[in-house]
């Protein structure tokens, strides 16, 4: 069980309670607890919900002592982002006509896949988080067949 009593920004309204734990490198872990009978997915779909959470002075935010008690957990995710990016209109990267000058002299060069992995763990000692994004690039191999083949 992770326990923390410290000064934090927090929001406590009719729909949810939320606070953030400061991590290194000016990042934070934002925790949201929906109130009884409230659906977190529906809250997240509300316009401005996430932006409000990420602003220290968001609607209803206060600064004060927060007594936080959380069970230990570890979460790992792996997201394949190529299809999502294409659906958002980022298509030229994935095309053989992509202009990725300065990476290599090989042409054509284009992105074949993008994936992101994240991991977060919370225990008695605190929070540990990591993430990386991998971009796979492809240079098509061109074979010239110069002899008899079947």
Automatic annotation (TrEMBL):
GO CC annotation terms, alphabetical: extracellular space
Superkingdom classification of source: Bacteria
Domain Serpin: 1-140
Pfam families: Serpin
GO molecular function, one term: serine-type endopeptidase inhibitor activity
InterPro entries: Serpin_dom, Serpin_fam, Serpin_sf, Serpin_sf_1, Serpin_sf_2
PANTHER family documented for this protein: GH10112P-RELATED (PTHR11461:SF211), SERINE PROTEASE INHIBITOR, SERPIN (PTHR11461)
Protein's UniProt name: Serpin domain-containing protein
Record organism: [Clostridium] innocuum 2959
């Amino acid at each position: 069980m992770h326990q923390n009593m410290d000064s934090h920004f927090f929001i406590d309204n009719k729909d949810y309670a939320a606070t953030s734990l400061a991590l290194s490198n000016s990042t934070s872990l934002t925790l949201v607890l929906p109130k009884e009978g409230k659906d977190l997915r529906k809250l997240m779909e509300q316009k401005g919900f996430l932006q409000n959470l990420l602003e220290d002075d968001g609607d209803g935010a206060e600064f004060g002592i927060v007594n936080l008690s959380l069970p230990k957990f570890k979460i790992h995710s792996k997201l394949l982002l190529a299809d999502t990016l294409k659906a958002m209109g980022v298509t030229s990267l994935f095309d053989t006509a992509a202009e990725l000058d300065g990476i290599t002299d090989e042409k054509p060069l284009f992105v074949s896949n993008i994936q992101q992995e994240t991991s977060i763990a919370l225990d008695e000692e605190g929070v540990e988080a990591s993430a990386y994004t991998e971009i796979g690039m492809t240079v098509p191999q061109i074979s010239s067949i110069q002899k008899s083949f079947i």
